[in-house]
Amino acid sequence: MAVTDDRSVALCRILLRLQLRRLREARGLKASAVAAKFGWSTARMTRLETKDTAVEVGDVRVLCDLYEASRELREELENYALITKTRKDWWDLKPFKGKIPAWFQAYLGLEAAAKTIGIYQGEFVPGLAQDPEYAKVILSLSEADERTQEVQAEVRLKRQSILGREAPPAVTMFLNESIIRRQVGTVDVWRRQLERLLDLAAKPHIALRILPFAAGAHPAMHGPFTLLDFEDETVGDLAYLENLVDGGVLSEPAVVTPFKSAFEKLKHLAASDAASESMIRSVVAAL
User: Fold this and answer.
1) Within 13 Å and on the Cβ side, how many CA atoms surround 168?
2) CA distance 234 to 207
3) Dist CA 273 CA 195 (whole Å)
4) Among 102-106, 130-134, 238-242, which stretch is predicted with the lowest mean pLDDT?
5) Structure letter (DSSP) for residue 73
6) pLDDT one-digit tens code per residue, 89-128
7) Beta strands in the chain (DSSP E)
8) How many H helices and E strands in the chain?
9) What band does 2 get if pLDDT is binned at 50, 70 and 90?
10) Rounded to an integer, what distance in angstroms lies between the CA atom of residue 237 and that of residue 214?
11) Spatial separation of the C-alpha atoms in residues 117 and 239, rounded to whole Å
């Protein structure tokens, strides 16, 4: 059974919808037929099995009856449903409530619940590793108003708390060399960011490696991505992609596999931990 603590509300949602769909398919039932049996709309069934949303315990109960789920699984799924209805994540509270897009809220919950996080970034330091002043410079490039930018900066700081908790995720970051060569903000802002990268790289659960220009063409040149893995194998591996205006989580194995393959290849192309640290220190020394 997956851990269902305050960090895993989003994980409960995804586990719930995956299990409900698998139970239905195991019984050889179509979603439309199940919906018709209970007088539900097909859209309601689709929402239960595919959307990141709260689920009524009563709905789970009648579905488990129909699917003849085991007592243990029934209790687990009802517990997941109860959590989705009664618990709130920090982004649902002030000052964040209503300020974070739904697509990013979904990712935040998964990031907080992940066992391992793999990141490739080619243009700027990933949000999990950004120094506050560096983050403000990056956020100022958007067209968002000043207050929204302030909230976004607070969100990045709040996200980073997962790196310092008692049982943090194992994080691997591959950063294109351009990230440590391009100055962002003032020299002082840039120096603090580089020093933060060194501090993070020194932590036992964080690997931070630079992909040097000398590596030439590489399999992640299509753009940045994040891979998420979880304690509960029911979820499987997820890939998160983000662009200028939105982002989304990919879950189908056939779609996620190419990103996993690219990430594995980066391990052989990136500089070693020691060499990466040396590269960053050389930039700091030259400032």
Assistant:
1) 17
2) 26
3) 15
4) 102-106
5) H
6) 888 888 888 888 888 988 998 898 899 999 999 999 999 9
7) 116-121, 170-176, 206-211, 225-229, 238-242, 247-250
8) 12, 6
9) very low
10) 30
11) 10
Q: Which of 46, 128, 80, 90 is nearest to 234 (CA)?
A: 80
What's the length of the chain?
287
CA-nearest of 147, 136, 163, 173 to 270 is 173
Q: Provide mean pLDDT across the span 23-49.
A: 94
The whole-number average pLDDT for the span 167-187 is 97
CA 15/CA 269 separation, integer angstroms? 35
| CB count in 10 Å sphere of residue 5 | 12
The dihedral built from the CA positions of residue 230, 202, 139 and 175, taken in this order, carries a sign that is negative
Which among 12, 203, 237 has a CA at the least distance from the CA of 115? 237
pTM equals 0.84
Cα-to-chain-centroid distance, residue 110: 5
pLDDT at 8: 64
CB neighbour list of residue 10: distance below 8 Å, 6 or more residues apart = 52, 89, 105, 106, 108, 109, 110, 112, 113
CA distance 85 to 82: 5
Dig out the tokens for 157 from the structure: 């700081």
Q: Token digits for 156?
A: 């990045």
Q: Map tokens 């708390």 to a residue.
A: 161
- Inform me whether the pLDDT recorded for 43 exceeds 70: yes
Return the percentage of the chain with pLDDT > 90, whole number.
72
Confirm if 208 and 163 have CB atoms less than 8 A apart: no
